[in-house]
Amino acid sequence: MKITDLYIKNFLSIQELSIPDIDNTLILVGKNNVGKSSIISAIRLLCGSYELKEYSRHTLNQPIVIRATLKLYETDIDNFYNNRLVSRHRKREKWMTEFKERIHLHDGDSTTMILKAYPGGEKDMATRFRKTIPTSRRFCRC
To answer: Which CATH class is domain 2-69+110-137?
Structure first.
């Protein structure tokens, strides 16, 4: 799978950033302290491998918003099926029906994940990926 669009708001040094139409490679180039590592940390936060700290907000009283559109390839879907992620159905047809219902595919092969982290520590994921894939078996290996 690959990230095709990324939006970050109020995270570390990033006030607001949109990177649309990401092709096969994204190269981050810039001077020190302009947010290159913050982009990587935002992706890690979305994947669940970055611990949010009090200083993680650009503006303290505003929520952090991270949105990523993921393109899923057939090999990704095969991996989810073979590992019985998202659904426990053994028959591929039934599994695929439940997969599409839970993951909310759009454009045929993409899904969008949105994380909102509010002041005070509450988090909200606007996708069912986190609810359907146990923490130890997540698809992100950040």
So the answer is: alpha beta
